[in-house]
Request: fold
Amino acid sequence: QVQLVESGGGLVQPGGSLRLSCAASGFTIRTYLMRWYRQAPGKEREWVAGITSSGGTYYGDSVKGRFTISRENAKNTVYLQMNSLKPEDTAVYFCNVLVGDMNYWGKGTLVTVSS
Reply:
């Protein structure tokens, strides 16, 4: 079955970097639109970035120029490289894919940006 497992979160100082990973199983990532979302405490879930089956990438305005989404087909894994992190980037980050009629989510990984 489809599974998404995020990892790579942690505590980082403002201005720092982290790379998140989303290991997928049960389907092939290169044939689907893969997306990252995040949810800060007390806020709604927010779309962050996406990568299409053809490799096109898209970003939310709040992360454009700082975050980069990529994928490694051989490992069936999607990444989110996050640079110049700000306190407002603090959130649980989720990986997402729509396969057929089903919308799948991972359990998320917590990113905390604080000094």
